[in-house]
Write a structure and sequence with these properties.
One of its GO terms (molecular function) is peptide transmembrane transporter activity. The protein is of the alpha+beta class. The chain is built from 17 helices and 21 strands.
């Protein structure tokens, strides 16, 4: 295992964060209250609260699917199987057998927003307009940046009647239900009430979700209360309140948990896990659809355009050593998907740790001791699904140096990295980086594969950050969209994953096990095999 030289951290920030946290919780009067759950997030700020949350999957977990619903939600009730789609604000969705671009959504009757206004088909159209129609009065660039790329299939939409919505896709697309599950419904009436200002809505948002926002202080806390009138009575939260606190540094999160300032932390520092367990804290983990990669630029001049270089980098990584370094809290990558996934297929390229083979490939590509490959990689200091990005990237940096790849890092805040990801590797915002460290949700065909690699989804049309364009891959994507029979679709998805691995399209490193450390007072939590979680069943023991 390589010896690690730590990237510089702002250590003084730890004390400032903890003192600020103590003050924030003291001001809420919740530090010793019962029926209140306090969570330390990895985000450095409160995610966007207006409907389409930012801060990646963590933002959607805490400020998205808590306060809001989509037409189609995720079933987060089970820990023993992967989450799948379930009816949300739509009770059903069907496709026209004579025209497989035409989807009909029947809406759930009797649903109201937190402000008391009714949810109906016009509200759905209004919410789609706020993301897709730049000339609509309610168009919000911030929400559009989060939501537009999630629904590239949408061509048009309309209210058929008060409880029916029709959405037409550009082409037949069997993945569309997974896309629309990202689009959350906020209240048109509340936007009017808040003076048609999204900044005002952020402080007093209104969705249809199981939680209501009752307090909001940027960079300090978000307070959520149980929505006792929630339409799904089985998911009315048992807690009185949930308080979310941004704590981007792992050591700060651990210290806050130890001191009793929070009850639960995301992504505890691996070296703190044994002592946390010894002190009586619970560590909860589970499989979930996640990978931790370097997304490689394929723009002109990028060294990653050479498949030999991409394969060399993948052969240079000691994944088992990294797992040991992380205290066992990882699953070494065997591909882009998790080992054993039904779409895994049978790739011919094996992600072994073979530095000599890596050196040979680099030599064939024109690199050697007198001509190392030098590149810059964009990374974050924390963030949703990013695990422990600074020490993990130090580990990779030394692995790669041993075979002749010299890596310099540009460290940016997580939300900044997301914005760079959306802008693309050709953008000036990429700062000359030829790769970025990014953790990905891989729970459906679109988010797992298509959005990363389809030719016409390069920025600004989508999030194909590296500008990868392979006509053979696009043909496979077309097959997925037009294959509505699940078994047949799986066979196509296996071919896609085989190509992802055999072409070494990413630096495929590891998969998270989503560790959370929490007080034994936290009862009833079921950790779903999902990026998202349901907080409704949780209670706090006295």
């Amino acid at each position: 295992m390589p010896r690690l030289t730590r990237l510089p951290l702002r250590r003084s920030a730890l004390g400032r964060t903890l003192s600020g946290l103590a003050l924030a919780l003291a001001l809420t009067g919740t530090a010793s209250a019962q029926g209140v759950l306090r969570i330390g997030m990895t985000a450095s700020d409160i995610p966007l609260t207006t409907g389409q949350a930012d801060n990646g999957g963590e933002g959607m977990r805490f400020a998205g699917y808590t306060v809001y619903d989509a037409l189609i939600n995720w079933d987060l009730s089970r820990a023993d199987k992967a989450s799948d789609l379930t009816p949300g604000l739509a009770t059903s969705w069907t496709i026209d057998p004579a025209d497989k671009t035409r989807w009909t959504f029947k809406l759930r009757p009797g649903v109201t927003f937190h402000d008391g206004s009714a949810f109906d088909a016009n509200a759905v159209v209004w919410n789609l307009d706020k993301l897709l129609k730049s000339d609509s009065p309610q168009f919000d660039p911030r929400q559009s940046a989060q939501g537009r790329t999630r629904i590239p299939a949408v061509a048009s939409y309309k209210a058929v009647d008060p409880m029916t919505v029709e959405i037409v896709t550009k082409n037949p697309d069997a993945t569309f239900p997974y896309q629309i599950a990202w689009i959350l419904m906020s209240s048109p009436a509340n936007w009017e009430k808040q003076g048609k200002s999204w900044d005002a809505v952020a402080k007093a948002p209104s969705g249809t979700g199981a939680w209501k926002v009752t307090g909001f202080v940027p960079r300090e806390r978000l307070e959520l209360a149980s929505n006792k009138e929630y339409w799904d009575k089985a998911r009315v939260p048992k807690l009185d309140k949930m308080v979310l606190v941004p704590l981007p540094e792992a050591n700060a999160r651990v210290a806050a948990l130890r001191s009793g300032q929070v009850d639960w932390i995301e992504a505890p520092a691996p070296d703190a896990v044994p002592s946390l367990k010894a002190a009586g804290f619970a560590l909860v983990t589970n499989l979930y659809p996640h990978n931790w990669t370097w997304h490689l630029s394929r723009a002109e001049g990028s060294p990653w355009n050479d498949v030999r270089v991409r394969k060399a980098a993948n052969l240079a990584i000691d994944r088992e050593g990294l797992k040991e370094f992380l205290g066992g809290l990882a699953t070494p990558a065997e591909g882009f998907l998790t080992p054993g996934h039904p779409w895994f297929g049978k790739p011919s390229f094996k992600l072994a740790y073979d530095p000599e083979a890596a050196k040979k490939l680099l030599k064939e590509a024109g690199y050697g001791p007198n001509k190392p490959l030098v590149t810059k990689v964009l990374i974050s200091a924390s963030g949703s699904g990013q695990m422990q990005p600074l020490p993990m990237n130090e580990f990779l940096q030394q692995n790669l140096a041993e075979v002749g790849i010299k890596v310099d890092y540009e460290v940016v805040e997580w939300n900044t990295l997301i914005n760079i990801w959306r802008a693309g590797s050709k953008s000036d915002s990429a700062r000359g980086g030829t790769a970025m460290n990014y953790s990905y949700l891989i729970q459906d065909p679109f988010t797992a594969f298509i959005r990363h690699a389809q030719c016409n989804l390069a920025p600004p049309n989508g999030t194909n950050w590296g500008y990868l364009c392979d006509p053979e891959m696009d043909k496979l994507f077309d097959q997925v969209r037009t294959t509505f029979e699940p078994k047949d679709q799986v066979a196509v998805l296996q071919k896609i994953h085989e190509k992802f691995v055999d072409d070494a399209l990413f630096l495929m490193v590891t998969h998270d096990v989503n560790p959370r450390a929490m007080s034994k007072k936290v009862q009833g939590f079921v950790q779903a095999q999902s990026w998202f979680q349901d907080f409704s069943p949780i209670t706090m023991a006295k």
